[in-house]
Every structure is written in C-alpha cells, then in structure tokens.
Amino acid sequence: MDTSSAPLLSPDKGLEGWPDWSILVVDDEQGMLNFLVKTLAPRCHFVMSATSAEEGADWLHGHHADLVILDISLPGKSGVAWLKELREQGFSGEVILITAFADLDTAIEALRAGASDFILKPFRVPQILNAVKHCFERSRLRRENFVLRRAVASSNGRNQALVGASEAMQQLRASVARVAPVDSTVLLQGESGTGKELVARTLHANGPRANGPFVPLNCAAVSPELMESELFGHARGAFTGAVRAREGLFHYAQGGTLFLDEVAELPLPIQAALLRAIEDLKIRPVGSEQLVPLNLRIMAASNRRLADEVAAGRFRKDLYFRLQVVELSLPPLREHKVDIPALVQHFMEQLAPALGVAPLAISAQELDYLTQYDWPGNVRELRNLIERSLILGSLNVSALYPGDPVRSAGAEAGAPMDLATLEKQHILSVLDSVQGDKTRAAELLGVSRRTLERRVAEWGHSSQDFGR
C-alpha cells in the first residue's frame, strides 16, 4: 500500500478543481499502478494505491476518497463485485473501472454496478485525465442541481439586500462587512421574521466561499427521527426504509455554506453529532463506516436566545460556544420603524412585477398607520402585508388593526401617494437623519452623490437647503 501527494498546482499546470480531490487507485499490476500514481499525483490533492479490493476496502474504512480507479480483474474479489458492495454500503464517490479484457456484457455489468466510466487498457495519459475530469464535472453538477432545486423550491423572490438607513441597520451592515470575509462560524440571533437567512446569504455572497453552494436547513421542519440522515446522509439498509444510500446536506454544502436555521430545535443527540462534526471536520453517514472530511462554513440561527436554552438544559453549552465564534443580533422591526417607508418601496418594486400587477398608491395616513404598528412578525409580516395588498388592490390596513373601523376607514380616505412620492419622503428622511450630509446620505441610499443632488434639485430644493 502506498500514498502519494503533491503541492497544489496553478490552473495552467493541472486540472481546475482537482486540488480538493482524493483518489484511490486499485490494480494488481505494479506497472499500471505506478503509471496512474505518477500521472495523477501532480494534479490532485492526494493519491492512494492498493493492489487488491480487500486492501482498498481496509483503507476506505478509515479514510475518504472522492474517486476510485478500479481494475476489474483482481486477485480475490473482483472489481465489479467490490463496486457493488461499495454502493450498498453507501459509497457515493465516483468510480472508473479499467480492464484489458472486456466485452459488451462486462461493460453493462460494470455500469449497472454503479461505475461512472469504463476504460479499456492500454490507455494514454489524456484518456485517463479526461475520464477523471468528466467524473469531477458530473459530481459538481449533481451537487449544484440538488442545491438549485432546493433554492427554487424555497425561493420567494428574495433580493439579497439589507434595506434601511436607521442606526440599527447601519450597524448591522457594518458587522456583516467585517464578518463576511472570514471563514468563522456565525450565530445569528433575532426574532422570527427579522431576516436571519437573508443576512446569512449576504455573508455567504460576500465571503470567500461565494462561488460554493449555500445550503439552508430549517431544523424545525425535519422530524427528529430523520434529522441525522438529513444532515449526514445514510448507507443502504441503515434503517427500515433505507432501500438505497443517500447523501446528506453536509455533502451538498461542501465548498460552500451550511445554514442551520432554528438550530435550537435540534434534539440533544443530534447536537452531540453536530458538535463532533464541527470539531473533527468529518462526518460519518448513518450506517456507514466511512469518514467524510468537511470543507465548508457553518452558520446557525435561532429565534430563541441560546444562552437561555443552555441554562434550561435544552441546548449543549459546548455546541453553543462552538457556534458562537461570531454572534450577530438582528433588531426587531419595531426598533427601527424609520426604515418602514424604504422597506415598503423595496417590497413594492420586488413583488409587483412578480405578481404582474401595478404598484399601489399609498397615502400619508396609511404610511403613518404602518409606522404606528409594532410588527410582531417583523419584516416578514410587512412583506406579507404588501404582497397581500398588491393582490387585493389596496393596502390592507384592516389586517393590522382588526376591529378598529376608525383606522381602517381613515386609511381608505387618505390621499394616495405613489412610489415616487414615497421615495422622495424616504430620501428627505435620510438626509434629515444625517443632518443634511449628502455624501453620507448617498452612501446609505446606495446611490452616487451626483444622483442624489439631481433628485433633490428636481424637487425644487437647492444645495443650501441641506448641509454639506
């Protein structure tokens, strides 16, 4: 048994994407083994070699391989027989079968056993490199398709923007800007509807793993019995109903971010398994003997204070400290009501085209009623109100003040305010909040100072009306 590794090479000297791959080569011909190791070692992270299926199986019990290159004709157990066992045990990596003697029946048997590719000996360097590259692309696309299906299924047309010019939102944006570039674990705490997943996605999109997948999991939506399999995956036959192996969310988040929403809902046994995964950077699928190394960032969120959950004995203290490397608290909407006009405009512009309707005209009195409300459901409740109102054709104030005919009638009688007027009010409000500092106001609004000055001039205000 032999191992070989090499320094990571620049993309022009190796195959792009290979540095993170570990490969196991199994062949009883020493010349072929040496040829494959010599070819692959300079182009990937790690190469392991074995001369029999039994020897390769012993190594896989305690290690992980992304790809196995396997000869069909081996002493003892054949390559095809071992491949069938690997798939039954839950091995999800790629497998290339090689042989000097093959017919159509052998090729069909190999593919049915779960081979990714089939190559006849003798072969040249470009053939094996192309086969490995195709395996890598297939693995990458399979993971990306899974992540995209989940993203589409859970998408509500969200826009990756932290809207608002209040002091609370300014501080949150500054914290996100500091935390995003590092790879540390992040714990987000705040009431339901404050936008914890939006902040997590913003951190991911502006971090070193932005090109990797963002995989969210609502821990409250998965039954405790299935949670371990959902996170870590399982081997075939691991439990009743496990008719085939399945990869978990840790696998699909490799190279990116795994976001555990409502992490306080995890059962204590799963908390222990999660702690071990974070500490060891390895996972073991349910019913499998293989350890899979991790390369990802973990973010977690909770609408309950985890410190209180720890004190009550419902959450592990050691896991809390592991997750709390960086902690960000999201303010409830009632603490930054000054951002409500900007949020209303943002949701109008986002939802109206998606619903195929015209934006609503909002009166000053209606806007006043929105700012008087305490929003127990926070930004999510506001967004739902705007969506419902767009569908109904008028701002549904009565939903906020049930049984209050005065406010409902007053809102209906108010003078309409279109989005342009709402925008004007918001910009002037931001200018007022920064004592007329147009440079600072432009930064908060996300526009250039020249654009801001042009808007102000269009409304008949001169530069002297404001400060700097």
Spatial separation of the terminal alpha carbons:
73 Å
If you average the pLDDT, what whole number results?
81
Please summarize the sheet with the most strands: 6 strands, mixed
Order the strands across the largest sheet as they lie in space. Answer: 1-3-2-4-5-6
Strand content: 5-15%
Shape: elongated
User: Cα-atom Rg, whole angstroms?
Assistant: 29 Å
Number of helices: 19
Helix residue percentage: 40-55%
* Unreliable sequence segments: 3-17, 155-159, 406-415
Structural class by secondary-structure content: alpha/beta
The count of β-strands is: 13
Description:
The structure is a single chain. The longest helix has 30 residues, at 125-154. The chain is of the alpha/beta class and 468 residues long. It is built from 19 helices and 13 strands. The protein has a 6-stranded mixed β-sheet, with helices on both faces. It has helices at 30-40, 53-62, 79-88, 104-112, 125-154, 167-179, 196-205, 224-232, 249-252, 268-280, 306-311, 317-323, 340-355, 364-372, 378-392, 405-413, 419-433, 438-445, 449-458, and strands at 2-5, 22-26, 46-50, 67-71, 94-99, 117-120, 186-189, 214-218, 257-261, 282-283, 292-293, 297-302, 326-329.
